[in-house]
Design a protein that fits this description.
Length: 314
């Protein structure tokens, strides 16, 4: 994963300070590309522990076309909680303590963080126990899964981009149209978070499947390690269904940034030496990407450094 560490170094050395919608501030570069040969190991970051189970459950959530955090919360995956929680605390239904800029405030105020944690516990409980509440505040709008599996077409019809992709890879592997897009201008304003990893293209050569992702916005410390692992896994799953080997994952970044309150954490990573990459293990009894469950996907030989905590900017 030296490619990832080189990205961190490049931003630190060449990035410019920019403001952002969260008010946190970033150091940013525009236009950067990394390439990962998936035959040489699964690209899961070793310079800090990355929760692979969360990568798996989120990707399967996308694949199933789901857009409600209830499914993730029930799987003990909380990486989308803040955006649904924000929807609740900004609504007229919320009558608790002021949660304005709760992410940034909690990162700098331990006492306030306890208040946020308490409200988040209430939110989780309501999401799980109250279907009406989950429908209203758990749904994130037409985010990734909706666009991948139910892109709105003509006359009320929907387009299953993922199913179409797989069929085309099987029947016309040399096509230059193996594309899935999550960026839908007609619906982007309805999404809790407009798609950061917004456009992907697949490519078949010499019996190997490669994927290139264009990511418009890349939170390099917290998000990008997850994105690398997620799309590497996605490539493996599609390759398995299409009876192909894996080639490369090519990660093209638009605005690649390190939040200013993540700089110390990045420095900690840069002082660590990458370790051997783990191996991905898929249930050999499952053939279709639509059949996989979390327990069907695992890694072996993962020996990372300890996790490094950092606040998320919402």
């Amino acid at each position: 994963m030296e490619q990832y560490l080189n990205l961190c170094r490049y931003i630190k050395e060449n990035g410019i300070i920019k403001s952002d919608r969260t008010g946190t501030g970033t150091k940013s570069v525009f236009g950067y590309q990394m390439r990962f040969d998936l035959s040489k190991g699964f690209p899961l970051l070793t310079t800090k522990k990355t929760a692979f189970r969360l990568v798996v459950s989120e990707l399967l959530w996308f694949i199933k076309g789901d857009t409600n955090v209830k499914t993730l919360i029930e799987a003990n995956n909380h990486i989308w909680d803040e955006w649904a929680f924000e929807k609740w605390v900004k609504s007229e239904s919320y009558d608790g303590p002021d949660m304005t800029n709760f992410g940034v405030r909690a990162a700098n105020d331990e006492e306030f963080k306890l208040v946020v944690d308490k409200q988040m516990e209430i939110f989780h409980s309501k999401i799980i126990s109250d279907d009406q509440f989950a429908d209203e505040f758990g749904d994130l709008g037409p985010v990734y899964g909706k666009q991948w599996r139910s892109w709105p077409g003509k006359d009320g019809e929907t387009i299953d981009q993922l199913q179409n992709l797989i069929e085309q890879l099987k029947t016309n592997p040399d096509s230059r149209r193996h594309i899935i897009t999550a960026w839908n201008p007609a619906e982007v304003d309805e999404m809790a978070l407009p798609p950061c990893h917004s456009f992907m293209q697949f490519y078949v050569a010499n019996g190997k499947l490669s994927c290139q992702l264009y990511q418009r916005s890349a939170d390099v410390f917290l998000g990008v390690p997850f994105n690398i692992a997620s799309y590497a896994l996605f490539t493996h799953l599609i390759a398995k269904e299409c009876n192909l080997e894996v080639g490369e994952f090519v990660h093209t970044l638009g605005d690649a940034h390190i939040y200013l309150n993540h700089m110390e954490q990045v420095d900690t990573q840069l002082n660590r030496t990458p370790r051997q990459l783990p191996t991905l293990v898929l249930n050999s009894q499952k053939d279709s990407i639509f059949e996989f469950e979390v327990e069907d996907i695992s890694i072996e030989g993962y020996d990372p450094y300890p996790r490094i905590k950092a606040p998320i900017a919402v």
